[in-house]
Amino acid sequence: MVEAIPEQRLGLRRRVSESCIQECIVEAPPSQHAATTSILAERIRDLEAARIEALVTPDVERLRQIHCADYQLITPSGRAFSREEYLGLIESGHLRYLRWEAGPMQVRTSATMAIVRYRVTLQLGSADAPGRPLPCWHTDSYEMRDGIWQAVWSQATEVRP
C-alpha cells in the first residue's frame, strides 16, 4: 500500500530537489563551463575526424579502438550492423568508403556522453565500380568508457532531393 504524503512534505521535497539541482548546475562559473564544453566539443570533432580517416584508409585496428564492443551502425537503408559485422565488411573489402566529405560538425556534450551531427557526402564501392554520391545526415554518439571516448552508435540518413 502506498502511504499518502502530506502536501506540506511534498512542498519541502520540491524545494530540496530544486535546491540540489541548482547547486549541481552552478558548480562552475558559466564562462568556465562554456570553455570546458568548447574544449570537449573540439576533442570530439578531432576524434570524429580520426574515425573518418580510419574508415576511408581503412585502418581496422584504429577503428576497433574508436568503436566500443557493443557499437551499432544504422545505415541509410535502415540495416543494423554490430561492430564486428561492420568492421568485418571493411576489413574484407566488401565495404569501401571512397569518399567521406563531412560538413561542419555540431557537437553536444556532457561529462560522459557526446553527440556529433553533420551533413556528409558518402561514396561507397571500389575504384573499378564506384557507387553514386550519397548525401546524408550523419550522427555519432560517443561515451566515455574506461577513461576514453568511444563511438557507441552511428546513424546515417539519406537526404533526398
Descriptive notes:
The protein is of the alpha+beta class. It has a single domain (7-158), classed as Nuclear Transport Factor 2, Chain: A, CATH 3.10.450. It has 4 helices and 7 strands, in the order H-H-H-E-E-H-E-E-E-E-E. It has helices spanning 7-25, 30-56, 60-66, 83-92; strands at 67-74, 80-82, 97-102, 106-109, 113-124, 134-145, 148-158. The longest helix is centred in the N-terminal third of the chain and has 27 residues, at 30-56.
Attribute tags:
Nuclear Transport Factor 2, Chain: A, 161 residues, alpha+beta, 7 strands, 39% helix
Q: What name is given to the CATH topology?
A: Nuclear Transport Factor 2, Chain: A
Question: What order do the SSEs take from the amino end to the carboxyl end, as H and E?
Answer: HHHEEHEEEEE
Q: Counting H and I runs of at least 4 residues, what is the number of helices?
A: 4
How much of the residues is beta strand, in percent?
Answer: 25-35%
Number of strands: 7
Bulk shape? globular
Task: Outline the low-pLDDT stretches.
Answer: 1-31
Helix proportion range: 25-40%
Task: Please report the first level of CATH classification, the CATH class.
Answer: Alpha Beta
Average predicted local confidence, pLDDT: 82
State the oligomer.
single chain
What summary fits the major beta sheet?
7 strands, mixed
Structural class: alpha+beta
Amino- and carboxy-terminal Cα gap: 58 Å
Number of spatially distinct domains: 1
> Radius of gyration, rounded?
21 Å
CATH architecture name:
Roll
